[in-house]
User: Which sequence fits this backbone?
């Protein structure tokens, strides 16, 4: 994991009411409030953001949204802008999650615009990428991930990179219980770091890369011990306090 600070983030997807969200983060704060060697984040649904940011004020746990839009205002029914997320107290946002790409039509170009708008609004961003099962089976993992990373790199500058994390989430491993092996994940992470290094030099190689896809307490440590895996983006297991706490602890250096 080199000397990059590990980062573990819970993506709650479409789960938890406002009161359930507040309850979950209160417990996380109780159990993780003193952790300083891992950066921790949670991504509740939009309606819970204000309550959660209030509950986590002055804590070591960051709050992010699961998506944002690339325009700041206007006739865009149903969208939420990055500036509005800042207003709600968010620290960061996920862009390009595979569920957004597959189910809501987010293209590589949309994801890039969203990343740019989020950075311009002052948010940190986690840019998600990953291949589908058929792309992996066809030997096209690097091609697909390469396209996603290239599109993102086109809107980034070296100066942005300390506020950017890339999450590699193979679609076939999300919510399926089928985790990529540490070696499979490491191979793609090394590829991504290479692309960023080629484009941005040291700022690119220094970026933090998370793995996501069926991360659980039982596999977290093996994944995060790989040299290019700097943390985890956790779906299902982030809804359970004990599991999420165990994954954060598995990310602690040394
Ligand atoms: P699971 O951990 O439920 O597989 O979800 C991963 C994910 O999509 C996180 O963004």
Assistant:
């Amino acid at each position: 994991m080199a000397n990059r600070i590990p980062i573990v983030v819970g993506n709650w997807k479409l789960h938890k009411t406002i009161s359930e969200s507040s309850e979950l983060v209160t417990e996380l704060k109780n159990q993780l409030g003193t952790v300083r060697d891992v950066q921790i984040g949670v991504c509740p649904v939009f309606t819970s953001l204000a309550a959660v940011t209030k509950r986590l004020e002055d804590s070591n746990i960051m709050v992010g949204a699961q998506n944002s839009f690339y325009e700041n205002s206007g006739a865009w029914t149903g969208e939420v802008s990055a500036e509005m997320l800042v207003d709600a107290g968010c620290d960061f946002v996920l862009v390009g999650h595979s569920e957004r790409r597959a189910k809501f039509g987010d293209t590589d170009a949309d994801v890039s615009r969203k990343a740019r708008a989020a950075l311009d609004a002052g948010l940190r961003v986690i840019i998600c990428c990953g291949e589908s099962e058929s792309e992996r089976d066809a030997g096209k993992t690097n091609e697909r991930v390469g396209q996603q990373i290239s599109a993102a790199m086109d809107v980034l500058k070296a100066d942005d990179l300390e506020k950017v994390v890339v999450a590699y989430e193979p679609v076939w491993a999300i919510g399926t219980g089928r985790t990529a092996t540490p070696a499979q994940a490491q191979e793609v992470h090394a590829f991504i770091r290479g692309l960023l290094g080629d484009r941005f030099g040291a700022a690119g190689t220094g970026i933090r890369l998370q793995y996501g896809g069926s991360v659980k307490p039982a596999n977290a440590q093996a994944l995060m011990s790989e040299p290019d895996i700097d943390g985890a983006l956790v779906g299902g297991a982030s809804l359970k306090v004990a599991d999420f706490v165990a994954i954060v602890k598995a990310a602690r250096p040394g």
Q: What stands out?
A: The two ends are 10 Å apart (CA to CA). The longest strand covers residues 124-129.
